[in-house]
Write a structure and sequence with these properties.
Chain A: Keywords: Hydrolase, Protease, Thiol protease, Ubl conjugation pathway. Chain A: Its EC number is 3.4.19.12. Chain A: It is an enzyme of class 3 (hydrolase). Chain A: GO terms for molecular function: cysteine-type deubiquitinase activity; ubiquitin binding. The structure holds two protein chains of two kinds. Chain A is an alpha+beta fold. Chain A is 53% helix and 11% strand. Chain A has two domains: 85 residues, Phosphorylase Kinase, domain 1 (2-Layer Sandwich), CATH 3.30.200.60; 152 residues, Up-down Bundle (3 helical TM bundles of succinate and fumarate reductases), CATH 1.20.1300. In chain A, α10 runs antiparallel to α12. The longest helix of chain A has 21 residues. Chain A is globular. Chain B is α+β, with helices and mostly antiparallel strands. Chain B has one domain: Ubiquitin Conjugating Enzyme. In chain B, strands 1-2-3-4 form a four-stranded antiparallel sheet, covered by helices on one side. In chain B, a hairpin with a 6-residue loop joins β1 and β2. The chains are: A alpha+beta, B alpha+beta. At the A-B interface, α3, α8 and α10 of A face α1 of B.
């Protein structure tokens, strides 16, 4: 395994697999020995985390990697998946993996969106989403949320948005953005901002969302928002994605990498475009309007997890 | 491979400090809100420790038409540095006989204080949720098994008289 290889060159104080260790008389093995060993493991883990950054599961975002890492991951896995990865690699060049902590959809969306603004410097888009965010704030107020419960989270996202636009004192580089998105305190606050926005949108249009929610969890809309949207670490479903995409007016494409087999004629990768529409009209999904709107956020879905995908034509370097 | 401990310490430092500032700012807003809401919710009296904004106590009134009616119950709040991303720790200081409150420690079993916590909750609304829990005990997830068993076996009278007794003993002003 990777982490063990990385440790090979280090001096390790303890060794659980040391043959001498197993012959130790257990009667003489005292509590403080166990504590000592425990501490040694902890000390080693604590150092490893910030250091073995890109391979470590605890890192919120990994570096961008070529899509071939996916085929390596599934080398001994299902042939359908390998074929689908092959199809994916025709249109997508790279992947950025996110930590699997239940917030991966929101974190992926956050990074992907801010990265898009940083690269496109699309001020019109920033103005547009800022107006939407103002609307989301009004929605929460009208639903009875006290301002102080959500305003810090809103302010932190607006700050990130301002910082990715260049030409200000506070402007940040792409590297800063990666660094910042990996900072738990920034990342968690932005995730929470999205959770508030999502919850507000679902509750504002509870009649529209009610049937989906009943199908998912058999609870009321209110209860669903309280237990499955607002708490950190609660995984996102279609309902969350539709609500966030609609509330912020940001289209999202999700590519599905699962085992669902295809018809006899070759393998294809299912995708779904979440296309928001203006006003109170529901999310139109992949029909009609979507022909004209091309989502600039593409996420890869594997059952239970979202990562960021980078299309080939975008001209980014890998 | 060289281990750079300075980096490790620096990154830990960076992770902790913003939380501390954010939680302080948030608690200060809650403090101001509590001063404003005092009249609006006469059943809850939330007080912040004079010297430490991370320590609060609350006095809550036992809900009417429950065995806790007439009692005043004291709660202790310990707010973590990661608040409001993480929930406050709350326990009863006043002895209470309730299926979801530990009889000895006062620990409370309530989803919003564990997995269902979100920053949309406030110290004030947590108090309201605890009052609601007093009125609607969840006998199927008991911290106090004696109390839970009475309810689960349908002995409502037994539960109510025990709860009433402890309310009188611990949560009401002594007469005379």
């Amino acid at each position: 395994m990777q982490p063990e290889e990385k440790l090979a060159g280090e001096e390790v104080e303890y060794q659980t697999c040391d043959p001498g260790f197993t012959t130790t008389d257990w009667a003489t093995f005292r509590d403080d020995d166990i504590m000592q060993q425990h501490n040694a493991i902890q000390a080693e883990e604590a150092v490893k985390k910030p250091y073995v950054s890109d391979k470590e599961r605890n890192i919120i975002f990994l570096m961008q990697e070529p899509l071939s890492v996916l085929s390596e991951e599934y080398q001994s896995g299902s042939p359908i998946l390998l074929e689908k990865i092959q199809v994916l690699s025709e249109s997508y060049a790279a992947i950025r993996r996110t930590r699997g902590d239940g917030n991966c959809f929101f974190r992926s969306f956050m990074f992907s969106y801010l990265e898009h603004i940083l690269e496109s410097q699309d001020k019109a888009e920033v103005d547009r989403i800022t107006a939407n965010i103002e609307q989301c704030k009004k929605t929460l107020q009208s639903l009875g949320y006290a301002d102080f419960t959500f305003e810090d989270f809103f302010a932190l996202f607006l700050e990130q948005l301002e910082n990715v636009l260049q030409g200000n004192e506070s402007s940040i580089s792409h590297e800063d953005l990666v660094q910042r998105s990996r900072d738990q305190s920034v990342s968690d606050y932005v995730v929470m901002f999205f959770r508030f926005v999502t919850s507000g949108e679902i509750r504002r249009r509870s009649e529209f969302f009610e049937p989906f929610i009943l199908g998912l969890s058999n609870t009321t809309v209110e209860q669903f928002c309280k237990t499955s949207v607002e708490p950190m670490g609660e995984e996102s479903d279609h309902v969350h994605i539709i609500a966030l995409s609609d509330a912020l007016g940001v289209p999202i494409r999700v590519m599905y990498l699962d085992r669902s087999s295809c018809d006899a004629e070759g393998v294809s990768v299912n995708h779904h475009d979440f296309i928001p529409t203006v006003g109170d009209v529901q999310n139109t999904t992949s029909k009609g309007v979507s022909d004209f709107v091309k989502p600039f956020i593409t996420l890869l879905y594997r059952p239970g997890h979202y990562d960021i995908l980078y299309p080939k034509q975008s001209g980014k370097q890998y | 491979m060289q281990i750079n401990t300075d980096d490790a310490i620096l990154s830990i430092h960076l992770l902790v400090v913003p939380h501390l500032q954010a939680s302080r700012a948030r608690l200060f807003k809650e403090y101001k809100e509590v001063q404003r809401e005092k009249v609006a919710d006469p059943d809850i009296q939330l007080v912040c420790d004079d010297t430490n904004i991370f320590k609060w106590t609350a006095l809550i009134k036992g809900p009417s038409e429950t065995p806790y009616e007439g009692g005043i119950f004291q709660l202790a709040f310990a707010v973590p540095e990661q608040y409001p991303l993480q929930p406050p720790q709350v326990r009863f200081l006043t002895k209470i006989f309730h299926p979801n409150v530990h009889f000895k420690t006062g620990e409370i079993c309530l989803d919003i204080l564990k997995t269902a916590w979100s920053p949309a909750w406030t110290l004030q609304s947590v108090c309201r949720a605890i009052i609601a829990l007093m009125a609607h005990p969840e006998a199927d997830s008991p911290l106090n098994c004696d109390s839970g068993n009475l309810l689960r076996s349908g002995d409502l009278r037994g539960y109510q008289s025990m709860a009433r007794m402890y309310t009188k003993l611990a949560a009401m002003p002594k007469k005379g």
